[in-house]
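Consortium newsletter contribution from the modelling node. Members have asked for a concrete example of what our holo predictions look like. Here is one, prepared for the adenosine-5'-triphosphate complex that several groups have been discussing at recent meetings.
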Amino acid sequence: MRPPKVYSIDEHRIPTFKIDKQAYYVIEKLRQNGFISFLVGGGVRDLLLNVRPKDFDISTSAKPEEIKKLFKRSCILIGRRFRLAHIRFGKKIIEVSTFRAGEMGEAKLILRDNVFGTPQQDVLRRDFTINGLFYDVGVQTVIDYVGGYLDLEKKLLRTIGDANVRFIQDPVRMIRLLKFKARFDLEIEEKTFLALKENKEEILKSSPARILEEFFKMLESGSAKNFFYLLTKHEILDLLTPLLSKFFQEEKLSYDLIKVVDIFIKKNHPKALDRSILISSMIFYILEKRLQVNYIDKKIFFHLGIIAIETKKVIDDVFRPFFHISKKMKAQIISILVNQFRILPLITSKRTRIRIPRDPFFYLALDFFNLRCQLNPKLTNIYTQWREKFIDSHSKKRKYFKRKNANI
Ligand code: ATP
Ligand code: MG
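And here is the predicted structure:
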């Protein structure tokens, strides 16, 4: 076993105050009880890159039951295959996992990943060298078994172990590769790059839910435009959703709304927009174009009911080849997109009266329309009028219910 390279605070310069208080508390408590425990993964990477970590994950030698015993009611164990501990501090959750061993050598899809291991085994099973660093809060050192520290300095993305094997074992890693490139503007190391080209079709063997989750995480990261550009360029999006990939390649305005989403998220918060709005920002122009080509150009009459049917078709055509969109999400997207044409009809000769529909998701449609205003400030006036009417109608409803209850 090769000893790890250890970097002192003089070298890594991670300021102690940037380490999350609760994560620090959890690590200290584990250590005081005789367990090894480190910060690991994305949190350490982000601290070294000087970006604000989204979350702090902890790896420890304590077994799930031992963690539970220490943290009692603030700790719940989750997961069936491999149990993780979630330690709660109000709304915040710190994830603690026991050191695990992975299968490094075999080039086949991993279905199980549930053997306890040593700290070194725990980092070797991780995806990229930059995600395989430990931070020891006790002595403030970065512990590196995989060469991730130097890769971060060189801004290089490299798999841990043989890239071909690692991508076949878990093809979602290819999506994650492009995600980190998009987010941190890193170079992909040559063997890793060749393995991506070689194995891209493997992506179809992975779980649609996991890929969709990575898409959402990217839409919530502020770097979604870069991410979808890379997914398209490397011909991965084409395998998952050919229609969307073609649209990104052919239509000039295809990224416009996603760019607005990126700016909005960066200004506000990763969760500032509902996920149905995020999906809507990807497919709105596809719908608009279909309505133009199929109805307006052909002078065929259409109304909101037809738009709803077309929207459903667009969602199915875009996502069905690989993904599953839940019924509730679909209903929300339909409502958001159809209401765009209520707020601003395609045929503008008709002057519309502002009437707020009885639709539980109308507020999402207004939020989406607000994003469109960033692209076309002329729409802001329309947005303001609808918004005022919406607020007004809600306060009236509330008054009505209050009165009704008072009568009872
Ligand atoms: P983000 O900032 O988006 O959360 P992250 O690197 O923290 O990025 P997570 O999904 O939170 O990503 O995963 C935490 C850590 O778990 C990663 O840093 C990596 O070490 C490891 N990991 C996650 N997914 C995989 C995977 N598919 N294969 C191997 N290791 C993984
Ligand atoms: Mg993370």
